[in-house]
Write a structure and sequence with these properties.
Length: 266
């Protein structure tokens, strides 16, 4: 066990040294140019690729994508170190201390019995810590701005629901969805583009509320499933047209619709 642990520590240190070399004099021009801000989009992409590998149960892929994520953590740590802000060791320290602090039922005297109680304890400690650190006064403070809109909506709704601001049954949310649809129709009739945009947002928020209220898959997951279904069916259209020696540009909407219906049955 000790030998394996030492191997891990050595490779973490090696990764740090590699990144410091890439960022140093005579290193890689691209790596030297990067900042916290410029790396954001790549971090999002790497996270998405990891989630794809998890969904595919691709174990080597999961290992590779975790490595890419770790590389980004090291990258940001090295950039921070160059500005005397913090280094990788301090990042790991903060994380370890947080886990110790937020698991008093394991490392302290608290007692919980169920996963739900653990989540409640975690959230309470988190609220207390963030309130002390930032002087936050709203339960809505702390929702990450860079979450996808669907996940951000779910978090906002969930926080409000914790304090009783919620629907009593899902039929009420369905009625709300219908109300938003009616308001979109009215805005379209009036030709009010700004109102149409606003009502579309309200409709999406109401749909997120329904998926959140049901305690099932998130609206993010449900929409992704529908996107995958759409992509599959459209690829089917392309494939069937190719068998006929035709391209999408050479096909009519009626031909594509017929193949779409065939894809649904297929």
């Amino acid at each position: 066990m000790t030998e394996k642990l030492n191997d891990r520590i050595d490779w973490i240190q090696k990764l740090i040294e590699v990144m410091e070399r890439l960022r140093g004099p005579g290193g890689c021009p691209w790596d030297r140019k990067q900042t916290h801000q410029s790396l954001k989009k790549y971090l999002v992409e790497e996270s998405a690729e990891l989630m794809d590998a998890i969904d595919d149960e691709d174990i080597p892929g999961i290992q590779e994508e975790l490595g890419d994520l770790l590389m980004h953590i090291v990258f940001h740590s090295v950039i921070a170190g160059e500005n005397d802000h913090f280094d990788f060791n301090q990042v790991a320290q903060v994380s370890a201390e947080k886990m110790l602090r937020r698991h008093p039922h394991v490392f302290g005297d608290e007692s919980v019995e169920t996963p739900e109680e653990v989540v409640g304890l975690w959230e309470e400690i988190k609220r207390r810590e963030k309130g002390e650190r930032k002087g936050e006064h709203s339960v809505m403070d702390g929702i990450p701005r860079n979450l996808s809109a669907l996940l951000r909506a779910r978090k906002a709704q969930k926080k409000a629901a914790e304090y009783g601001f919620d629907w009593e049954k899902q039929e009420q949310i369905i009625d709300k969805i219908q109300e938003e649809l009616d308001e979109i129709r009215e805005a379209v009739r009036e030709g009010d583009g700004q109102a149409i945009d606003e009502e579309i947002g309200d409709l999406l928020f109401a749909v997120v509320n329904l998926s959140r209220f049901r305690n099932g898959p998130s609206s993010e997951e449900l929409l992704n499933n529908t996107i995958m279904k759409f992509i599959y069916r459209f690829k089917y259209i392309e494939s069937e047209l190719a068998k006929q020696g035709k391209s999408l540009m050479e096909s009519s909407i009626d031909e594509m619709e017929a193949l779409w219906q065939a894809a649904k049955k297929h």
